[in-house]
Design a protein that fits this description.
The complex is a heterodimer of chains A (168) and B (123). Chain A is α+β, with helices and mostly antiparallel strands. Chain A has helices spanning 2-62, 65-73; strands spanning 83-84, 98-99, 113-119, 142-151, 158-167. Chain A has one domain (41-167). Chain A contains two helices and five strands. In chain A, strands 1, 2, 3, 4 and 5 form a five-stranded mixed β-sheet that branches. The longest helix of chain A has 61 residues, at 2-62. Chain B is an alpha+beta fold and 123 residues long. Chain B is rod-shaped and about 85 Å long. Classes of the chains: A alpha+beta (168), B alpha+beta (123). The A-B interface holds A 1, 3-4, 7-8, 10-12, 14-15, 18-19, 21-23, 25-26, 28-30, 32-33, 35-37, 39-40, 43-44, 47-48, 50-51, 54-55, 57-58, 61-62, 102-103, 105-107, 109 and B 13-14, 17-18, 20-21, 24-25, 28-29, 31-32, 35-36, 38-40, 42-43, 45-47, 49-50, 53, 56-57, 60, 94, 96-98, 100-101, 103, 115, 117-122.
Chain lengths: 168, 123
């Protein structure tokens, strides 16, 4: 009768250890599942931010020299409202971000994407010369921007910043 | 006769003990095995999905930005075998508004599952 208890105790102990091991591996697989699920969300928000960058640069690309010059010379009466001029390192939380519009027809999942463009300020009248990509022709002006896009789509968050230059 | 009976009695109890023990243990092992199967299935699912996302992204990034037109309008399909799983990668390029902006959509399907990565590229 003394020995009879021991078998059950032993069996239960073995079972408890096995349960612990299996629960650990199950936890690990749950973590992997979350990883795999979040990975696509991360990619979605990243590519939404990239699409927002493309939309912003497309708007800059189609802007004429006159309205860009207006933007540069007169900050408060600027036409492209989303361009922020005052400093090289502005406080981004106080900036009005522009929501994406053009890309939404094809990418409705990117509705929480927004962007800003920051005019880089240079002492030499905001014009760069001899910098890159055949941008040094006489009489031309080169404008440089920082484009920042932020996306909170797909439950994730991404921010992309690129440099943008255009010759006029 | 009496001592012999006692020994026989003891043997019977011990056998019963062992049988009960084996019963409990085997039930437990069955449960653990079920849990492990599910864990393995989940890990495989996650692995396939991660692979598909990786493939989709590399295909998307592999399209040269000045060669979008070669994928334009038509649907390009590619089959990739990895770890005995067949991944089918489809690329769709469509113009968006102006001709310079194009939506690039890469979808990867495997074992009746599908993921899609979509972005806009500038030409």
């Amino acid at each position: 009768m003394k020995e009879s208890g021991n078998t059950i105790v032993l069996v239960l102990m073995v079972l408890a250890i096995m349960t612990l091991i299996s629960i650990t591996s199950f936890e690990q697989s749950t973590t992997e599942l979350f990883l795999a699920k979040n990975e696509l969300d991360r990619k979605t928000s990243f590519y939404c931010a990239e699409a927002a960058i493309v939309e912003a640069s497309n708007k800059l690309e189609s802007a004429t020299i006159t309205n860009l010059q207006q933007v540069i010379s007169n900050y408060s009466g600027r036409k492209l409202t989303w361009i922020y001029l005052e400093s090289k390192n502005p406080d981004l939380s106080s900036v009005t971000w522009e929501n994406v519009t053009d890309i939404l027809s094809k990418m409705p999942q990117c509705s929480n994407s927004k962007y800003i463009a920051i005019q880089k300020t240079y002492s030499d009248d905001h014009v760069l010369r001899n910098e890159s990509l055949d941008m040094n022709k006489s009489g031309d002006e080169v404008h440089e921007y920082r484009l920042i896009a932020r996306s909170t789509d797909g439950g994730s968050e991404s921010t992309i910043e690129i440099g943008y230059r255009r010759r006029f | 006769m009496k001592p012999l009976l006692k020994i026989l009695d003891q043997k019977g109890v011990s056998l019963l003990e062992i049988m009960v023990g084996i019963l409990i243990l085997s039930t437990g092992i069955l449960g653990v095995a079920g849990l492990q199967t599910r864990a393995l299935y989940g890990i495989k699912w996650a692995q396939h999905r991660s692979t598909a996302i990786f493939l989709g992204q590399s295909e998307l990034e592999a399209i040269p930005f000045d060669d979008l037109d070669n994928h334009h309008g038509s649907s390009n399909e590619k089959e990739i075998d990895l770890d005995n799983i067949k991944y089918v990668v489809k690329i769709n390029v469509d113009p968006l508004g102006t001709a310079s902006q194009k939506t690039v959509e890469v979808s990867v399907s495997w074992l009746n599952k599908l993921i899609t990565i979509e972005t806009i590229r500038f030409q």
